[in-house]
Design a protein that fits this description.
single chain, alpha/beta, Rossmann fold, six-stranded mixed beta sheet, 31% helix, globular
């Protein structure tokens, strides 16, 4: 599904960001990409999203050759991607519902489909009670869940999470990764870039380690060569099993007023639907006014 073949990237100012990178990621894999600042993680993502093109080598994603792709095709390629950013990138004057619905509206989805699908996605990330709230009324963790819902709503084949836990607390970090893993279990490819090495060690997934623009390790956590970092930067303390919290739709119960919450089954119907529904729309949401313009005109945007 994703192939980097002998990819190097040198910027105009002479910065050598990547050197001779070879990566193959199969459909349905969950891959962590880690590395120190300046290791090449950001360039790796920009190349995947076709914000940059390689100086040499080739990048093939879902039969798209990104180096040879014409500008007018970029918005359509990006609709195969669901992007989750560290800084959320929510639209401040839109509610939670409308932030998620925007991802469908920009590609011309019918309002009937939007009204059915958006509440379902908001529910899976545990924000049904916050659907009419604005981003400034949410915590950092809640804003990240909105961003995750927006990435899920259009059934993207590939989810790219760029430091999705960077601005949330340790417990929410675990929950976000658990949600991504649940989505991955239904067949969606997930690539998560992170500096939180302690978090990566908690999950049994493939880890690609970048250093100085080169791949220095690619494999399981035990053999990935992830540098040991002090746990103080995360201070993770799991007070309650993450899966239990997910099953209870992230209902938080104040310690001083214990309330029995009935455990429910995970929303597997939704997770299956977002992969199997071939009629579902897909979108890359970041700065896609070109896609919106193209949709209004019924054609490609240059």
């Amino acid at each position: 599904m994703i192939d980097f073949k002998n990819v190097s990237k040198v910027y105009d100012n002479g910065t050598k960001a990547l050197h001779n990178v070879n990566i193959h990621i199969d459909k349905g894999e969950f891959v962590f990409v880690v590395g120190a600042s300046g290791a090449g993680k950001s360039t790796f993502l920009k190349l995947m999203m076709r914000e940059e093109v390689p100086s040499s080598g080739s990048i093939i994603i879902k039969d798209y050759n990104l180096g040879e792709m014409k500008k007018r095709k970029i918005p359509y390629f990006r609709r195969n991607l669901g992007i989750v950013f560290q800084d959320f990138r929510l639209i401040p004057n839109m509610t939670v519902y409308d932030n998620v619905a925007f991802a469908m509206r920009v590609v011309g989805a019918r309002e009937k489909d939007i009204r059915k699908r958006v509440p379902y996605v908001i529910n899976i990330v545990g924000l049904s009670q916050k659907a009419r709230c604005y981003p400034n009324e949410l915590s950092g963790g809640e804003q990240q869940r909105v961003a995750l819902a927006r990435a899920l709503v259009n059934n993207a084949d590939i989810i790219i999470a760029d430091e999705p836990t960077g601005n949330v607390d340790p417990q929410m970090s675990l929950e976000i990764v658990e949600l991504l893993k649940r989505l991955n279990e239904t067949g969606t490819t997930v690539i998560m870039v992170t500096h939180a090495h302690d978090l990566v060690r908690r999950f049994d997934n493939r880890v690609i380690v970048l250093d100085g623009g080169e791949i220095v390790s690619d494999g399981a956590v035990e053999s990935s060569g992830i540098p040991v970092q002090p746990s103080s930067h995360l201070n993770i303390e799991v007070k309650k099993p993450v899966e239990n919290k997910i099953n209870q739709k992230f209902i938080s119960v104040p310690e001083e007023k214990p309330v029995e919450v009935k455990e429910t089954e995970p929303d597997t119907d939704f997770l299956n639907a977002i992969v199997s529904d071939t009629d579902t729309y897909r979108i890359y949401v970041e700065d896609d006014e070109t896609a919106a313009t193209a949709n209004e005109k019924g054609g490609d945007a240059e």
